[in-house]
Amino acid sequence: MPHALAQVYHRVIPAVRCVLFMIEVLPLMSEGAGTQLRLRPPRALSARQFKQLFVALAGTMWLFACVGWWTGNVFAPMFALLHSGVVGLALRQLWRSGEREEAIRVKEAVVEVFPSGHAPPAFQAHPHWVRLCGEREGRVLLVSSAKQIEIGSFLGPAERVELATSLKRLLAAANGRHP
User: Any idea what DSSP says for residue 178?
Assistant: First the structure.
């Protein structure tokens, strides 16, 4: 079975690279045979670009506040300071929301889903009993007995399709079937 997982890993890698590393496929070297899918939300801007956006917004705001103060509005700088703080906090919160991640580990004896990098698993089941559901509704659900968990809810539709395809292949390989 480790050989089958390795074959699936090498087949999945080229397809995953096209979605800009929102779905990373990693081998589980330290824990024996298996594969880990690491999911991250898409980001439109880098950290540097977020800072540049804040500087541009705050700079424009302060420019107009200075013009307002010069024309007689004594409260303009105070509102600009307040508005700069609110915009800065909003951009920081937006950046922090992009730091979420999910990890899905598929091994020979267990499928685990970790909602964040270091949290305990929110879902554990033997690969033989795990089903992939909800693809028609645009959701990706892992289901086993009475347990179910939605994965990749922050991904776009194309990435969810790619995630479902990758998981089908990994689950088939973990069960000893050829994908």
Answer: -
C-alpha angle 130/136/141, rounded to 5°?
Answer: 30
Predicted pLDDT of residue 98: 80
Name residues of the chain where pLDDT drops below 50.
1-20
Contact call for residues 172 and 164 (beta carbons, < 8 A): no
Does residue 178 come out as left (phi exceeding 0), alpha (psi in the -120 to 50 range) or beta? Answer: beta
- Residues written for the chain: 179
CA distance 80 to 59: 10
Nearest CA to 165 out of 154, 150, 179, 145 is that of 179
Neighbour count for residue 44 (Cβ, 10 Å): 8
Q: Are 23 and 39 in contact (CB under 8 A)?
A: yes
Count CA within 13 A, CB hemisphere, residue 60. Answer: 6
Compute the distance between CA of residue 161 and CA of residue 143 in angstroms, rounded to an integer: 17
Helix extents (H) in 22-75: 47-70
The string of pLDDT tens digits covering residues 118-167 is: 778 888 888 888 888 876 778 888 988 888 888 888 888 888 888 888 88
Q: Are 109 and 175 in contact (CB under 8 A)?
A: no
Domains of the chain plus CATH, in order, are 2-43+101-174 (2.30.29), 47-97 (no CATH)
The model's pTM is 0.67
